Amino acid sequence: MEQDTIVAIATPPGEGGLGVVRMSGPEAIAFASRLFRPVRPGPLRSYRLRYGHVVDPTSGLVIDEVLVAVMRAPQSFTREDVVEFSCHGGPLPVQQTLQGCLDAGARLARPGEFTLRAFLNGRIDLSQAEATLDVIRAQTDAGLALAQAQLGGWLAREVRAVRAVLLDLLAYVTVIVDFPEDEVEPQDIGPRLRTSLQTVTSLLQGASQGLVYRHGARVAIVGQPNVGKSSLLNALLRSDRAIVTPVPGTTRDTLEETANLNGIPVVLIDTAGIHASNDLVERLGIERSRAALAQADLALLVVDASRPVEDEDLLIARLTADKPTLLVWNKLDQQDPAAPSLVSIAAHLAHPRLAATVATSVATGEGLETLVQSLVQVLLGGHAPLAAGEARLVSNPRHHDALHRAHEYLAAALAGWDANDPTDLLGGDLLAALNALGEITGESVGDDLLDLIFSQFCIGK
């Protein structure tokens, strides 16, 4: 790891109450001392805010009035000496303070380099480093809770506990293979293999839910013109985002907005009504509707309860046949008394992946809460929503992949042990499982993977 001193702006661009310039490395305090003039003379002490000014050392001109915080190694985020300048939150004071640090000898940090140093210096493991970014990017309370739990180290502790067992088992197997002449007391490693496999299985079981809470889902609202798609979007968003009129074909383009549905960030896509049209602009909108539907994770197929099911409804149902679909029987307040039941309509549509049917009235609000609950249940694969205080789910695709591979290797090792396979084959599966789990905590990763992970961070974090 490079031992130079790095600096970056740690707050978003633009105007604000404060702008923070962060510096970390062996020369951070020395470089800061060249720029900072405290109102009261004296050395910069750790964990004490000092009031003063950042001054251009060449001209002596004041750049900004600031507060300076010093955190000496190893009691800092990076476990290096860290200095933070809290400036006025305008672009010029922050940029000129940054330039002063660069002129003093610091290097501009790369994206995620502060967090990378925290990882390389043992302050956090790789799963906690990734959780730092998840905290920043969380869109819902549930997503934030999952990220904070992972940042607290629960996943790392689970993984390290399994790795400790596997290391012990691998040491035993290695001795048996490499030193057959030594008298090693036989061990039944089957029970510990089973326990390790059960732990990994348990972590995997909640991963699909965790991924949904972290990444969310795209949901396309489709149907014929004037069935209430835009009104449904507004109702789910609890705001008048889409224009609604009684005129069919009002929506000419797709409209995307994100809603927080029971802790899941859901991108709702209002689409133009799909039907045969000679209007060029409307046809372009319909093509975009089809494209949005193709990219969606789930479809809300909206059918008008005030009229019989038509051939166009059946056509649109066939367009959604390759993805989970909720049938929304809307305008319940205008329902034709002679109309067939919702069950018979669902049967008539003959949708191969129909996940649920919900009767709604956007005008009265009837059925909307049921729709949200059904939508959340489908997205979570039938599992109950995350309860308060339950924030221990694997939510990172990279972790899910590593756990899946570890599960396969452990299952093979256990099957081999039960079948009395050669011990050297068992050692290979154990080593592979160890390496897969080590990818989660960073104990067995290469520089290429680290570069990929930390390149996703902003500069200054």
Proportion of helical residues:
40-55%
Report low-confidence residues grouped into runs of 5 or more: 247-252
CATH class (first level) name of the largest domain: Alpha Beta
CATH architecture of the largest domain: 3-Layer(aba) Sandwich
The outline comes out as flat
Give the oligomeric state of the chains in this entry, treating copies of one chain as homo and distinct chains as hetero.
single chain
Q: Return the domain count.
A: 3
Corresponding CATH superfamily of the largest domain: P-loop containing nucleotide triphosphate hydrolases
The CATH topology of the largest domain comes to Rossmann fold
Number of strands: 13
Plain-language structure description:
The chain is an alpha/beta fold. It has three domains: 118 residues, Probable tRNA modification gtpase trme, domain 1 (Gyrase A, domain 2); 128 residues, tRNA modification GTPase MnmE domain 2 (Four Helix Bundle (Hemerythrin (Met), subunit A)), CATH 1.20.120.430; 165 residues, Rossmann fold, CATH 3.40.50.300. 45% of the residues lie in helices and 18% in strands. The protein has 16 helices and 13 strands. Helix 11 links the parallel strand 11 and strand 12. The longest helix is centred in the middle third of the chain and has 25 residues. 40% of the residues are buried.
